[in-house]
Structures are given as structure tokens and as C-alpha cells.
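Example record

The entry below shows one chain as it appears in the dataset: sequence first, then C-alpha cells.
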Amino acid sequence: MPLPTQTVPADAQAPAWRSLLVTGACLLGVAALLFGLLEHGVALHERRQLLVLVVAGTVAAVALNWAARRSWRLVVLMVLAALVTMFGLGAVAMLLVTGATTLALGILAFGAPVHPVPLALALRSASGLAIMVAVLQPMMHLRVNFAPVYLGLSALALVAVHRDLARLAKDLWFALAARPAPGSGRATVVLLLAALLLATLHAAMPESGYDALSNHLIVVRWVDWHGYWHFDPAVFDRALTPRGAGWLFAWAHVLGGEPAMKLLNAAAFWLTAGIVLAHTAADPEPPPPWLAPFGLLALAVTPLTIWVMAMLFEETVTTLFVTAALASLALAYRSPEVGLSRSGGQLMGLVDYGSAVAA
């Protein structure tokens, strides 16, 4: 499904009250987010920190609303710039390499879509991430988990489908040049992006989760230092625990350190939100354009969502795989335009669900 575009004349401007409405609703979203953080007691006890979040949320909403009045391309560039500011260039580079690699793996497994339909790209990326888990699992037994090996494997996947990737990237870049259609749909998407950026800003803080410090970081640091995982309960009592998400964290940590690992964890929720938005838009009888972004906005500002995005748990990765599995199975019977046969959609759903269990 193509991205929504504006059909009014190029010089037409949305009413001024609409921008004010977006800004006011953003302040309500920021307030809800702050309430969630304070209610959960996540390291936000100083007024200075609260002020920073209020200002950051307001600036993000105003800036994204300004960008959304011009093109999707400008919105994407603004989000990337914000992520570089929060996590650093190395972490964002890792995310881009991982995203391209997972999309390549998804295309290798299920074929390339004819057009850069958002839902088709999102589902193939999620399935490629699941395939990456399956590839990393046997590799963890061997002393091969080093950055040159990971980058070499990524290069092989990218080279294998480079023509499809180049075509899709070119088509997507031109599609993103369109001006988003004004209205409630654009306003709620802007609010959702601002809320996600604010929650991701909280995820950029140093790791403080008890489970991450006593479990996940131990695993990824061992892999980073030694190049493998020992699977020995005599050394670590949870050595045999299923670690689908842990292997993805290890991949990110080897390539970009802790910031890259935390960014990948937050990006899993971003991709989940993208699948929900694209799946809703692809419905033959779609709901009002503001409904799905508003529901995701409510989810993004809840304390539990903020907690799992900020801490290195498995929940964001598991949620992504479960959501992708359900969407793939639904599309197997409803929307052949994403380039999947019924059996292909069923297989994609089973791959994603298997990774959700392994996570």
C-alpha cells in the first residue's frame, strides 16, 4: 500500500488551529509519559530531569509536525538525527546495518515485494530478524562471534539480494518525498513519533535493570570477550535458558557496544508499532486514520512499555515476533498484494512465532 499523500494544492496550508491542536495534544502525551515514569519510579526524581523531558517532548512534537507538513523524507531524517544525538553514530550505524541485513534475509526467504509496500517491508524485516536468531544460535557454540565475522555475514546477505534492495530503496526514497495528507491521521502519527522518541531517550540512559545487569549483560559481555557462549550451568546457572533475544543483543553489543544493544531493543518496539500501523492501513475496510496511531500512543506512554524499552529484557523482541506472526498469518488469507502466497504467509508466521518462543 503506498504511503498516504496530500492531494490538495502544494501551496495549501493546514489551518493554524490544527498545529495548535497537535502541540496541545503532545503536551498531554508528555504529561501522560511523565506520569507513567514517575508512577513506576524509574530514576526520575529531579526537577531538572522532568524539565528536560517536557522540553524534549514538546520540541520533538513541534519539529516533527513541521517536518510532516513537508515530506515523510524529512521526518525520517529528523528521527535519524535524534537517534544519533541520543545513542551515537556507531549505534545508529549498527541499527542500519542490522536493518538492511534482516530485510535481505527476509527477501531471501520469502521473495522481494514488487513495490515498497510498508507492510511487506516490515514483515520481511521481522522475519529476517527471526532468521538471524536461528543463524546465531549454532554460532554461539563456536569461537566465531566477532565483528569481522558478523559484518562478513551481513555483506553476504546484502550482496545476494543487492538488486532487489537497490530497487526497493530507490522506490521508497521517492515515495518518502510525498507530502503527508493533513488531518487527524498525520497529527496522531506525529504524536506517536514524539512519544516513541521520548521513551527512546529514556532508553539511552545507562543500564540499571536488575535482570539485565545480572543476566543479559553477563551473557553478551562473555560473548564479546570470548567469541562464544559456554552453555555450562556450572559456570552460570542460567546458561541453558533460551536466549533468542540475547543473541540479538550479543550481535548488537559486538558491533556497537551497550548503546547499540539498547537501541536495538528500543527499535524492536518501533518495528512492532510499524507493523500494526501498516497492517491497519492495508485493511480492505480500514478504521479512521487516527485510531491505530492513537492506540499505539496510549501503549507507548504506559509505564510497562517504557520500562521494557529502557531495560534489556526480552519483552520487546518477543512482542515483535508475536505481532509479526499474527500479521503474517492474517495476510496469508487476506492481502496477496504484499507478495506472499498463503503457504508463504503461514511459514512466515511460524518462523516468527518460533522465534518468539525462543526469545
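Notes for this example: The CA atoms of residues 7 and 275 lie 25 Å apart. The chain has one domain: 16-358.
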